[in-house]
Amino acid sequence: MRKRTIFSPILLILLAATILPDSAAAEVDWQTRETITTAKAPLAIQVTADGKRTFILTAGGNLEIYDSNARIIDTIKVDPAMNLLSTDGAGNRVFLGNAQNSSVHEIMIEYIAEFDYEGSPYLGKSQAPVVLAVFSDFE
After folding, report:
1. Can you name the residues that pair with 45 across neighbouring β-strands?
2. Residue 94 and residue 123: Cα distance in Å, rounded?
């Protein structure tokens, strides 16, 4: 009577991994894109999901907000005891934590965009304190 040997799929994979050369080894290519220099030591860094904003919590109680080109948008003075940072994916809610006293502060952020409407048609006084822009030509 002849004996049959059956190889399991796991055994075949392990055997192939030991026999085949390392030609499938992955490499990583990288480069420094931007360097942000803060006035004080950074304690925590967080980037929004879309990569448009970077939040840096620095020693001394500053929350610095940068755009995607590493230009500072704003600096918010926060409690100097804060040493932890997290954001929601959009960067509209920022959470600052203090590991020493187990507290978390939530900051709601709204971004104000300025529009240049010089030369646009208008109705009423040109120096009116409120500008209402209607975009109705969407296709």
Report:
1. 56
2. 40
60 in the Ramachandran plot: left (φ > 0), alpha (ψ -120 to 50) or beta? Answer: left
pLDDT digits (tens, 9 = 90+) for 49-58: 999 999 999 9
Report the distance separating Cα 86 and Cα 101, nearest Å: 17
Q: What is the pLDDT of residue 65?
A: 95
> One-letter amino acid identity for 18?
T
Distance separating alpha carbons of residues 53 and 47, to the nearest angstrom = 6
Domain range for 88 is: 40-139
Alpha helix (H) ranges present in the chain? 9-19
Where does the pLDDT of residue 72 fall: very low under 50, low under 70, confident under 90, or very high at 90 and above? very high
Mean pLDDT of 10-29: 67
In a domain, 71, yes or no: yes
Q: How far apart are CA 66 and CA 71, in angstroms?
A: 5
